[in-house]
Design brief:
By secondary structure, the chain is mainly alpha-helical. It has helices at residues 14-31, 38-55, 60-70, 73-87, 120-126, 147-170, 175-207, and strands at residues 33-37, 95-102, 109-115.
């Protein structure tokens, strides 16, 4: 029985499994992204991340331990060089798994495993947007320059007759003054109309 043994053997012997993970880790470090099944990617994540943590301290001892796992001088050089420069500031979580669907042959769940700080598209999306500040200029002169001022002036003009009616009702303004103000335009109009026929009549007499 295998009680408490949560390791995924991936259907391989111990030597085959170690060799496979070593090759996959070297490929991930060199190419920064590989495509594989989800089960293998989860095991590779547990295999390669302790090596990246160890590579933060560049000593001969750590290089030899990493080489015992990876078996590749090119991968060691890349791990202790470019990879640590990019992901060395992180406290962990150096890899990312992105699911890509199911394989056609055996319907195995596929994914992409990559080093997080080498995906330029996601890094562009993660950058915070710059704050834009707008400076508002004060209007010079008495004319309103903003739409809010124009609307305020229009509402003030509309409210003026209402205020006059309320003042009349309360007895502040005499009724006679309001009536005179209302009738003066009508009187002027009638006087202009009365003058118009006289002028036409004078023109007719001159023609005769």
């Amino acid at each position: 029985m295998r009680h408490g043994k949560k390791i995924n053997h991936l259907g391989r012997t111990a030597s085959h499994r170690k060799a496979m993970l070593s090759n996959m880790a070297s490929s991930l470090i060199l190419h920064k992204r590989i495509s594989t099944t989800l089960a293998k990617a989860k095991e590779l994540k547990k295999f390669v991340e302790p090596l990246v943590t160890r590579a933060k301290e560049d000593t001969t001892h750590n290089r030899r331990i990493a080489f015992s796992y990876l078996k590749s001088k090119e991968a060691i050089k890349e791990l202790f060089g470019e990879v640590v420069e990019k992901v060395g500031t992180r406290p962990g979580g150096y890899t990312r798994i992105i699911k890509t669907g199911f394989r056609l042959g055996d319907n195995a769940e596929m994914c992409i495993i990559e080093l997080v700080d080498f995906n330029e598209l996601m890094l562009k999306d993660a950058k915070p947007a710059k704050k834009t500040t707008r400076r508002s200029r004060r209007s010079s002169g008495t004319t309103p320059s903003t739409p809010a001022a124009v609307t305020a002036k229009a509402t003030a003009v509309e409210e003026a007759p209402v205020v006059a009616e309320e003042a009349v009702e309360e007895g502040v303004i005499p009724v006679a003054e309001v009536v005179e103000e209302a009738e003066t335009p009508v009187a002027e109009a009638t006087s202009e109309e009365s003058e118009a026929p006289d002028a036409s009549a004078e023109g007719e007499t001159e023609e005769k």
